Amino acid sequence: MIFPGQALPKVMAVLNNNNASSFIFILMELPGLETSHCWTAIPICSIYVVSLLGNITIMYIVKPVSSLHTPRYLFLSMLSMADLGLSASTLPSMTAVFFLGQREVGAATCFTQLFFIHTFSIIESSVLFAMAFDHHVAIRELLCYATILTTKHIGAIGLAIVIRSAALHLPLFLILGRRQFQPMNALSHSYCVHPDVLRLASSSTLVDSGFGLFVMLSTLALDAVLILLSYMLILRTVLSISSNTEGLKAFNTCISHSCAVLLFYTPLVSLSMIHHFGKKKLPAQVYTCFSPIYTFLFL
Q: Which residues face 105 on adjacent strands?
């Protein structure tokens, strides 16, 4: 059995040995702000620095304190690690574009960045669903909470999330590496994402589009539906509580999570709609800049 971490080097070897070395991609700056890219880089990178320090602080505080090794804070630590991974995936190319003015990126590098951006995005979505499940169990099955969400079970959930996210994107990554492109390809953003790269392919992309749709429906869409279902069940339980004070207290525990879900999915859906129906690029920057900082809603 080959795990995702073992398969990625083999995939990179395939990319380096085929036509992926014969073309490059051109990253884009914010529309209308090309001449002032250094100034736009300051707030964008500041947000990344705050996110980096904040998420590291969260993990630094949670790890040594045994009283914080509860499902809530363990899932929060997972979300912080996913945020750091997403930041590390996007920041290098954005720094090169905005600070150094270097917009050319090799195909293998672009495809690798694409893989990690989408993988960490799915990990974040999965962790948000796991946190919704945590709230669901805490409110509806309080007496069984300690036996359902043990530390061992949470570790298994985390491992399953990583394997699911990486394994689903490895085939997409490999298929894309075999597509034909023009020698120079202008992207729409300052980093590589699958729909943006795929639209530039000069060969048939039917398989890529079909598998990409399958991945999206089986991850982001499925997670969103399950999160919504969890909240419907939570709301049903809260409404059945005779005491208004207790019901409000139970529902308040979900407010920060619901805000984080909206902050995660709204720019993501907007970005997807833009790739299909429009050409504006600002929401793409909003997604990568602000999705790494919504972890602080839980604090």
A: 25
